[in-house]
Amino acid sequence: MRFPSRLLAAQIYFAGILWAAFYAVTTLITICIAIFGTLDRSVWEGATQVPRWFALFVGVALVREFLPLYIAHGQTRRQFGAQAAVTVALYAPVLSALLVVGYLLETLLYSVAGWTQELARPHLFASPTQVPLVFTEYLVEFLVWIVAGTFMGAAFYRWQGGGLLSIPFGIGLVVLGEAAIGADLRLPFISMPLGVVSTPTVLTALATGLGCFLLGLAMTWPIIRDVPLRNRLT
Amino acid sequence: MFDDRSPIYRQIADRIKADVLSGALQGDEQVMSTNQYAAFYRINPATAAKAFQQLVDEGVLYKKRGIGMFVSPAARDELRAQRRERFFADVVDPMVAEAKAIGIPLGDIVKRIDELERNA
Amino acid sequence: MNIEVSGLRVNYGDVRAIDDMTFSLDGGKIYGLLGRNGSGKTTLMSVLAGFRRESGGTVRVGGHPVFENAAITREICLIRDAGETIDIDKVEDALYFAEWLRPHWDAAYAGELLDRFGLRRNMKVKEMSKGQRSALGVVVGLAGRSQLTMFDESYLGMDAPSRYAFYDALLADFMEHPRTIILSTHLIEEYSSLFEEVVIIDRGRLVLHEESQTLLSRGTSVTGPAGQVEAFTAGLTVLGAKRLGPTASAMVYGDLDEAQRRKAREAGLELGPIAMQDLFVHLTEGSGDAAPAVPAADASANPFGDAR
């Protein structure tokens, strides 16, 4: 199989630009809080709730934009599936690394300014400087959210409104992944602590993350393996 | 350019014949290639090729392999002979019919021809 | 690449878009695919390109089945209005992926075509006009140099100069890099001279597959006194007839030999050619019952079968 260099490069390029803008905005908010209020915890921690939605969107876009692009350029669904899987597997660590860098830059800023970088939520890591743990947590999170996106994106692409039925399964994937890192589940209208479900270690987190990733791919493939290209996207 | 009704290859063939008759295309002169014709008239090259094939079959053009199409040296004379043969049927007879239909005496036509002949 | 379609059926749920269609194309030519709205043109081409799997029958391109066959689909390109190959951020992004995914991509030629259509690399595709989108599709389709290249109404929104630029580029590139090209269109007047062969479909069925020049030479309009027209056209395939006072005009489909032509002249009838568009209209108008009746026993005179 050909290495999906351009697919991956395009995604990473886009993510890099977004990250830079996102980091700038977060830092601005941090400074505002420090000036006009009391800053007693990590703002970046709160900010990292957003990128997983971006990861979900990337998963959807892979199917909605790039599957038709690939087929229309004479690639097979199988070729696309393989390239997309490799892309997700390599893209999630990049996203995760960007968040790690965000934490480290924040640590630097806080120590220079003399602020306290307290964490407010349960995590796999106890301090933002535990790089391997931070990386693992977000890696698992992004892997799971992206494949949840490809799965639901595929269902909506194929069955339009019928894709609604895929949402519970997509949420199921996400819950499984979040439980693996002992994080709170924070979705609109649903918020519950998942730490009680398991006491995660790096190993169980990685294993569960990988399992969710493969499960998500396995759930997506039957939908796209013979999907007709839509005559018109609505 | 071409009317899109009668087969284009016939129109192209007719045009080349007209050029040969008028002397615009001389004997042994190379004619444009099918591709040049196709591009110029914005038509399928196979259609242009069909026109050329028809002209080769009729002896108006001849093929030099790998070089192109040329006007047969005898083409002009042969075309003139053909046209002469058909002249009365194609030109004079319809004219006489038209003259009758609109009431022009044939004598007037003869007179007109005499005038043209004198002025030429 | 040659194309063999045999007993093809395509269903959308309960709707049958293509019904028992059989024809074959030799390849290496420019084909016109004509049909009314909803006749199945896009569906047919989508199956030929592997965008969609056939519901029944077989489709072979270059002798092989198409769907999910990487060795064949890499040589096939279908540009549709849906814009699969261009709906991505900017023009340069569309070219970036085309270059990477298309085995015969000619980047220099793509650049040349962009200039010819007045497109810039930094244009956002979503902000482009309909005509510009169509032009970008043409760029992607031509520069891909695919062995089977199909354009599904790839002129939508293009102004006349852009369309002529498209026809010129298409012809020039076809002559330089001969390949199989299929064009679907409603602009029959403009396109007809580009075709070597024409495939006409209607309501999911094949109506006719013919060399375009032969098709044109088979269509004859017969005009003259109504009684004479009627007598002359008796027993011929009449696609349509009109009457104005004592004068009638009928469209006849089929070869007329020299004796028939003489007979017509003697009867004071005027014989004239019929434009491809008019032939098309008459071959596809009306419901199935009103379609021109053709003696089923005489297959050779049947203009609705695959005559090739």
TrEMBL record, chain A:
Where are its TM segments located? 12-39, 51-72, 84-105, 138-157, 164-183, 203-224
Instruction: State the organism's lineage.
Output: Bacteria, Bacillati, Actinomycetota, Actinomycetes, Streptosporangiales
The superkingdom of the source organism is: Bacteria
The protein here is known as Uncharacterized protein
- Keywords attached to this entry: Membrane, Transmembrane, Transmembrane helix
Automatic annotation (TrEMBL), chain B:
Keyword Transcription (UniProt): yes
Q: Name one Pfam family in it.
A: GntR
In alphabetical order, the GO MF annotations are:
DNA binding; DNA-binding transcription factor activity
Q: Which residues form the HTH gntR-type domain?
A: 6-74
Q: Which PROSITE patterns match?
A: HTH_GNTR
* Record flagged with keyword Transcription regulation: yes
**This protein's UniProt keywords:** DNA-binding, Transcription, Transcription regulation
* UniProt-listed CDD domains: WHTH_GntR
Q: Which PANTHER family does the UniProt entry name for this protein?
A: GNTR-FAMILY TRANSCRIPTIONAL REGULATOR, HTH-TYPE TRANSCRIPTIONAL REPRESSOR YTRA
Query: What protein am I looking at?
Result: GntR family transcriptional regulator
* Organism from which the protein derives: Planobispora rosea
From TrEMBL, chain C:
The keyword GTP-binding appears for this protein: no
Q: What is this protein called?
A: ABC transporter
Q: Where is the composition biased (Low complexity)?
A: 289-301
Where do the ABC transporter domain residues begin and end?
A: 3-228
Q: Which Pfam families does this chain map to?
A: ABC_tran
Superkingdom, natural source: Bacteria
The record's region (Disordered) falls at 289-308
Read off the PROSITE patterns from this record.
Answer: ABC_TRANSPORTER_1, ABC_TRANSPORTER_2
